[in-house]
Structures are given as structure tokens and as C-alpha cells.
Design a protein that fits this description.
Layout lengths: L2 H35 L18 H5 L3 H8 L15 H5 L3 H8 L7
Length: about 110
């Protein structure tokens, strides 16, 4: 391959990459811009925002005090850690984890 042919090949590849980038930006640019500004129709609550469980089964066992807390946006229980003490859960738990639960510490990440 002569130097002129190599140079032509390099320019051909470079030109193809540039043309592909321009075409891609032209076609996909408006879609990306629209996606960033259009809210999702089923937007979930933001992390840290408490959303009350209004299921009828849940509500039937709930005290008026807890319901009032939920309606005011407060998380009932104040984030108190209550360990799972069922036999099934306990059977797979290490002694170290049981000690953490008994000390009121939540699961470590």
C-alpha cells in the first residue's frame, strides 16, 4: 500500500466517524433532550419521602394515633428498629447478628 493509499484510508475512516457522529446527534439529540425534560407519568415518591400504606387490611389494625401520624406525613415509630424474632428468621442468623439486633442496631450495609 502506498503512502497516498494509507492517507486516503485514514481520511476515509475519520470522515465516516465524523459523519456518523453528526447523523447520530441529529437524529438522537432531540430525543435525549426531550427525555430529560419530560416527567415520567408514574413518578414514584422521592427517596426519604414517607408514603402511608392505605391498604384496607393494613388500616384495620392501625390505631388512631398511628393513622394521625401517617396523615401528617410522619413515619410512625420514629424509625425505631424492631428485630425479626420469628423462628424461621432466627434459625439462619449468626450470634453476632443476634447481638446487633438485641442492641437495637439495624442491618449493616
Amino acid at each position: 500500500m502506498t503512502p497516498k493509499q494509507k492517507l486516503a484510508a485514514v481520511f476515509g475512516v475519520a470522515g465516516s466517524l465524523i459523519a456518523g457522529g453528526v447523523i447520530g446527534a441529529t437524529l438522537l439529540g432531540p430525543l435525549a433532550a426531550n427525555a430529560a425534560t419530560t416527567p415520567s407519568p408514574s413518578a414514584a415518591a422521592s427517596p426519604g419521602t414517607f408514603k402511608s400504606n392505605e391498604n384496607a387490611t393494613h388500616e384495620s389494625g392501625e390505631s388512631a394515633t398511628v393513622e394521625a401520624q401517617e396523615n401528617s406525613g410522619q413515619r410512625p415509630g420514629g424509625g425505631k428498629h424492631t428485630p425479626n424474632e420469628t423462628a424461621t428468621h432466627e434459625s439462619g442468623e449468626s450470634a453476632a447478628r443476634e447481638a446487633q439486633e438485641n442492641a437495637g442496631q439495624p442491618n449493616a450495609p
